[in-house]
Hints:
Shape of chain A: extended
Number of helices of chain A: 26
CATH architecture of chain B: Orthogonal Bundle
Structural class of chain A: alpha+beta
Structural class of chain B: alpha+beta
CATH topology of chain B: Arc Repressor Mutant, subunit A
Shape of chain B: elongated
Strand order of the largest sheet of chain B: 1-3-2
Helix content of chain A: 40-55%
Number of strands of chain A: 23
Distance between the termini of chain B: 33 Å
Oligomer: heterodimer
Strand content of chain A: 5-15%
Largest sheet of chain A: 7 strands, mixed
Low-confidence stretches of chain A: 603-613
Mean pLDDT of chain A: 80
Number of domains of chain B: 1
Largest interface: A-B, 26 and 22 residues
Mean pLDDT of chain B: 87
CATH superfamily of chain B: Winged helix-like DNA-binding domain superfamily/Winged helix DNA-binding domain
Amino acid sequence: MSERFAGIRRVFRLGKWRRELDDELAFHHESTVADLVRSGLSPAEAEAEARRRFGEAERYRRELETIDRRKAWIESLDRRVDIAFASVRYAFRRLSRAPLFSAGIIATFGLGIGGNAVMFTILDRTLFSPPAHVLEPEQVRRLMIDEIAFTSASRQVADEIRNLDFVELSRIPAFASVAAVAKSTISLNEGPDELMGQGQAVSGNFFEFLRVRPALGSFFGQEDDRVGGQPLAVISYSLWQSQFGADPGVVGRILDFGLGPYTVVGVAPQGFTGVDLRRIDVWLPMRVAGVQLMDGETDCFEGRLCIAVQVLTRLASNYSESQADAQATAYLRADRAENPPIPGYPADLESRAVLAPLQISRGPLAPEESRLALWLAGISLIVLIVACSNIANLLISRHVCERRESAIRLAIGSSRSRLVGQVLLESSILAAFGGLAALLVATWGGSIFGALLLPDVEWSVPGSVARTVTLTLLLALIAGLFAAMLPAWQFLRTSAGEVLKDGGRTMSPWSTRVRGSLTALQAALSVVLLVGAGLFARSFGNVRSLDLGIEPDRVLLATPSFSDGITQGEDDQLLAEAMERLQRLPGVETASRDIGAPFGAAQYILRVIPVDGDTLPAGLEPRLHYVDQDYFATMGLQVRHGRGFGREHTATGPGAVVVSESMARVMWGEENPIGRCLQAPMIAGPCIEVIGVVEDSRETSLDGTQPLHFYRPAEQKRVTPRFRVILLKTAGPPIEIVPDVRGILTELDPANQSAEILPLSTYFGPLTRTWRLGATVFSIFGMLALIVAGIGLYSALAYGVTQRRFELGIRAALGARRKQLLSIVVREVVGLASIGVLAGLTCAYLLAPRIDALLFDVAPRDPLTLASVAFALLLVGILASTIPAFRAVRVDPAVVLRAD
Amino acid sequence: MNLIQGTLDVLILKALIFGPLHGYGVVRWIRETTDGALDIEEGALYTALHRLEKRKYLASEWGVSENKRRAKYYALTETGRQHLASEIRTWDAYSAAVSKVLRRPEAST
Lengths: 900, 109
């Protein structure tokens, strides 16, 4: 009824000012005429005089109408603002009347929205935004090659390209410009300046190509990047801040990162990380630094680059993407045919160019973590849904509690839309506060969590905050409305008469149903999350217990390189002395040298070795080690056949080689490899006798690639100091003897104290990161959802019991026993929880195969995981029901029935 | 005598300083006080009244006139009162300055 009249009233009000204007002017006219008549004019004259005095009646009338229309509009706006303020004030009063209720909802909103904001910050940095400070990044492409890989004989996409002629490449018409970045970074851990960090060798036009502006000084250019050029360096903003105290005098300083003196020419802008996201501290011209890294091999940089580089290009605007693709593919095919990536590698690699976007996560080589991040974003959304449904549940309970109040308000003429608006408003206010809390969570949590998730990524990038804030507030708004939807609907169904008749004693079947479904939904979503957590936890466990062959837990790795000035003889002398003293060190069981180390702990240049004689199938790339006789004992590798190296394998002793099981199988099948002869270009003489076979060792990746290794005596080859490592098998935890080892190395060469000495297991961690992260994050979010769902279940039941006190009281009065009352409550819980668990398990069962690729050796529908999650959830349900259940059985019929 | 631009507002505010009046009352007061020396079109006076009300210098209310008729009464609001005070100060300073110039003896140069 009242709604129907509202429209008419509105029309009424709009016309009101016009009628008032008429009245006012009529009064004026009549008063004037009356006064004039009284002063002696005839009525006709008085009429004319009054008109004359008023002036142009029509014009004034128009002006007055314009003024009054505006005035009426302003007044109605004022009224609306007043109403809005009153509603907000009322909402605040109501919310502060139940501070615990409000705080709980704000916290739930905060966590739910905050989790999403954090995930958004991470996704924004890794997936959506291009690397910082690159201008017009959408034009930039990474040139990748999709071809038959010479390491595995199957098609692979690779972003590292060897043996390309850059001058030729930049002549491709669709490429406006081409730049290159060395694939591997240079560890800067040596040199008199003791700067730790990562260096990157880049082509001279790198900065110009990316269109970056220096924060200080200038960048090196194309003309600086040539063999024999000046050693120039650009340092990162964070290095400048942390190591040089933001001193502008850093430009022009000469630094030694262990590669010799480099002159600093400039500082990159804050947060600049080149084309990738990981932190880089120093950029060096590729041809200058490369020659030093390759121990003076200048021909490696004169024409074609022999090191592996990533190639970047800006597309010319007058060519389409597919034209660029075709041109690049044609060029690559022709070039590969003439100049194979590995000298002497004959086969047609069927190369195809791939022009991938600058954001690596969007291309074919997206790292596992970025895929994981997408999943995590999905999970955080689920947590938000759980949070929202929980809040909806609480709001419904609250409004059910106040049904009598609302029924009275309805009965005395408050409009239904007003009540609904009030619910939406309250929920929005709570969500807005939740959003603010979420912003706190996001600003602090974003980079902390990001650093945990993707530790290599540089997180200190300015900007991007605006997007996080916008998204957070938007999410808060959506979440607020979403949570208020069902409670609002409830009002549309409330009938004042019915509520007042039964005194608000019984719950309407509708709200019971809705609240039950919400609780079951929460349970179901928690199941999905917990199944995810379980799968990742099991993957992580499997990775941990994986047989690597080598046993990294008891191995200490040292990378000594002595002062630059010493001669080769002195270096040999120092190393021999170091080995001898380290072997005698208490706590060291065995020691050995090697080149490079597992898990990327120490770098080495992997040279591709075509093996003749007893030939190795084309396309395999075995790893060559130079080791001492204790190497296999040190690394925990079992000698399966034949023997390892002995005392006789000195510099002048007999040549000998030990191969890994996989390599033996690949070369000689099931035949006995002992006594066979292995030929490789790096091995002097005709061929070397195989004296033993050791167990396989996995040291680069944990998955299926074949671990092909062959070992030669360290004494028979002098290894470049840069790639040399010392491995020590320790009796106790390796970390304990680090000071002793450092002491020995420092004593031998006091000038150099920067040797890296760390347990080998330190380097193993990053390889298992995907699973560890998945397990951690899924578990955190899963527990969060479980807690929220548990609280939801508890509040739903506790509330349900309160609402049913009347019914339970009657039952008790009629002689129901406690056990029977208990079973009524418990049946409800078990019912709700079972529905939730069943729905959740079904979802998990359907979804799980999609994360298969991220799991390690666990079936995505692992029955053990599914079963234990179901059990856990039912347990939580039962725990959540104990208090309400006991309250139910203690119902005193006399008290309850008298209450109303 | 024509009215100087903008002074009508001040006259209306001044008219209301002694208490609420309806539009016709304001007209009559101004006419009587100036002995009809100012030639004001009454329509202009009403637009000024409404404009002042829109600016919240005046508030209006319907009441009953001396001859028992329904009439719209205008009253000065607090902001209107302040505005009038400041306008009067401005006017005094202005007219003093203008008079000084105009009364200056001519042949002194």
